[in-house]
Amino acid sequence: MDLWYTENHQEDTKFSIKVQEHIHSEKSEFQQIDFFRSETFGTFFTLDGYMMVTEKDEFIYHDMITHVSMAVNPNIKKVLIIGGGDGGTAREVLRYPGVEVVDMVEIDERVVRLCQQYLPLTASKLDQDNRLTLYFEDGLKFVQEADEGYYDLILVDSTDPIGPGEGLFTVAFYNNCKRVLSEEGILINQHESPYYASYAHEMKRAHSKIKETFPISKVYQFHMPTYPSGHWLFGFASKKYDPIKDIKADEWNKLGIETKYYNTDLHVGCFMLPTYVKKQLDNEE
Amino acid sequence: MDLWYTENHQEDTKFSIKVQEHIHSEKSEFQQIDFFRSETFGTFFTLDGYMMVTEKDEFIYHDMITHVSMAVNPNIKKVLIIGGGDGGTAREVLRYPGVEVVDMVEIDERVVRLCQQYLPLTASKLDQDNRLTLYFEDGLKFVQEADEGYYDLILVDSTDPIGPGEGLFTVAFYNNCKRVLSEEGILINQHESPYYASYAHEMKRAHSKIKETFPISKVYQFHMPTYPSGHWLFGFASKKYDPIKDIKADEWNKLGIETKYYNTDLHVGCFMLPTYVKKQLDNEE
Q: Binding of S-methyl-5'-thioadenosine: at which residues (chains A, B) (predicted)?
């Protein structure tokens, strides 16, 4: 028997992975959760059928959501992670000895529990570090109620802006992020993709909102082969730091944090976007 | 009826596009050639079932194979294109008024003729510019017989190193490229991909050969969504030019060549590779 997982990247474009085992399937309060095992990608899981994390390329996503901000401000102490139930983002943040507080707000506790069970590669640090506090709450509500100026860094590790992730792409959310960030504060958000029309639409919407909220708002790219088109983006927004001019490359490299994707040259390179992406972000096309 | 084109990126990984029409199918002397039409990608064609060119993202590949070298040496006059039967590389090269000679050596005349018929977006310049000469020959043989030091630029726009493209990944070929290049000479080659094991293997093999042949040998990356993993590479090799230190950004920008993917910031950025790719290229993993 052949068993294939398929994601429709567009209505007429499919990406499929042969499945060795459908490890787990359940409908939580918020979404459909499935875990699979494949030869090429190892264990991977999907939410509502959309690819979230594979063992083969999770290092790319988690390197890029975390280390860019930490190299701009290696003195970050208080971090808020919104989403990120697989634990990979928390794992990377917790590698910094200077980080004192990590609050992780994941709406769906089942994602965390299942990743702890099936994806120890990403989730194993979630119960091993007393700097981390897990909140199973709505991220939008959490930032509404958080103290002004408390966090140095917010990492929005969300799904696409449909389903539970929708509120994390709103002006209300971005405004609250700005409010709870310190003057040194940096916001990194999952910024969708420029290639397929439906994703590019969400990318433009998100960027126009963040651009209005933060004085500095840039976008950086990376190669994420298991996401639609493989061309994925994060947003970097801050009150005072420019991600390129203000990189502390020497300071970051002295920390000795070994990474498989990120490095401080790539840090600069990843903000150099293709012309068609720049035009989309500037609303010129 | 649903008709889907599928390419196996690995044995257990498939990419599929819904086909509106299978426009053409033939077996040439060298390979199986198929043309299709799809809603998202427009017209696309495959050789031996492997995706070559789609109307949607050909600009990415052709921008990146051409403009990086031209921005390093805007005085390039004599260009050799090996492969590139779709005509997209020739189209981009011929946009430079300073280019005097373009010799294009494609082993399979049928690819050129069919692209002229079905892909005018890439092929339409192939019979419109008297600076261009088409040779339907083996590229390996052509460079063996070409004059020493004649070309300023060689663009190897080849298929993967199986089938007709195999000879273009050999030491004999790279040595002949070096011989027929001028002292200002630059070689750009299709450099495969770092993500899936089978492609990474070919990437490493190609790089180790070129590194031994040319004093300067770098690799740059781009996002090519219809190729396996979407993470694709070109090699930049030369006798004296460093692709970053020697970029003539102002001079290139003054030419006023409009591009959808390439720009002189991206030029610098695209050489900043992920750590795991650098390690593979340095034979450290």
A: 31, 106, 138-139, 164
